[in-house]
Design goal:
This protein has about 270 residues and is an alpha/beta fold. It has nine helices and ten strands. α1 crosses α2, α2 packs parallel to α3 and α8 packs parallel to α9.
Length: about 270
């Protein structure tokens, strides 16, 4: 199982890490921590040294009830950072975390190589065609609603079945457009109750039937810290446990704030598998 990034084949049969680089003032865990180019470069270098394969750059906070940011502001946040990373770390694989096709296009033109879309094309009708034209790997996530309303009483009859069907339809549409490299993310915390999140984690292996790589984004999320009556700052241990379960249930990529710990988790998992 491979994806093609900048002409480089990435083998996802061995799990990889996507390090989170939020260029936002209001992200739930690390908002407003990167205030200068130096901060950004130091954080990125640390993640690459610790074992991140991808660096996921985002300029729009998608936490529940997050403020809506217009496209112009999002573009001003992410494009200079992508240019900077591409210059300083030319071999790095940069992902753009955006649901807007204009942002995705500009990001790829300036050195990103993967599009991470929390809306799977539902918030921008041009996204599928844009990704098809760009011929880059496309990460699609399931979300019920939008970041502004997704946690307002999410309901499903059979959450696992409904999300598998959702992805199968999206994958079919993308294949018709000749999008080759598709990755799915079930969207932990995006329009799901605490119980529904754990139902998805427990049944993640069923999503292997779609025959595309699976990314899991569990890092320091509320499904972990709310269950344990703590906060994001104290949820690293819980994140490691959840990531381990995700790997055992077939996850190919872990999207995390803490790369070193995720890398250690993968090493232990691979040793058990060997």
């Amino acid at each position: 199982m491979h994806i093609n990034c900048k002409g480089k084949l990435i083998d996802l049969s061995s799990p990889k890490i996507m390090g989170i680089l939020n260029i936002t003032p209001d992200s739930f865990y690390d908002g407003n921590t990167l205030k200068s180019d130096k901060d950004i470069l130091l954080r990125t270098e640390k993640m690459l040294i610790e074992g991140a394969t991808f660096i996921d750059v985002g300029g729009y906070s998608s936490r529940p009830n997050a403020k809506n940011v217009n496209a112009k502001e999002e573009l001003q946040r992410v494009v200079p950072v992508i240019k900077l990373l591409n210059k300083e770390f030319p071999k790095s694989l940069i992902s753009i975390d955006s649901f807007r096709s204009k942002i995705a296009f500009e990001a790829i033109q300036n050195g990103a190589c993967l599009v991470n879309d929390i809306s799977a094309g539902t918030m921008d009708n041009n996204m599928f065609n844009t990704v098809a034209k760009l011929q880059v790997p496309y990460l699609i996530m399931h979300m019920q609603g939008t970041p502004q309303d997704m946690q307002n009483n999410p309901e499903y009859n059979d959450i696992v079945k409904e999300i598998i069907l959702y992805f199968s339809e999206k994958i079919y549409q993308l294949r018709q457009l000749q999008v080759n490299d598709i990755i799915i993310d079930v969207g932990f915390g995006f329009g799901k109750t605490l119980e529904q999140n754990y139902q998805l984690l427990n049944n993640l292996v069923l999503f292997k039937s779609l025959e595309v790589p699976i990314l899991s984004g569990l890092s320091r999320k509320s499904m972990l810290y709310k269950l344990l009556n703590t906060n994001p700052e104290k949820a690293l241990n819980a994140t490691t446990v959840a990531n381990t379960i995700a790997l055992m249930n077939g996850s190919n990529i872990l999207r995390v704030h803490d790369v070193k710990e995720a890398n250690e988790t993968i090493k232990i998992f691979l040793t058990l598998k060997a």
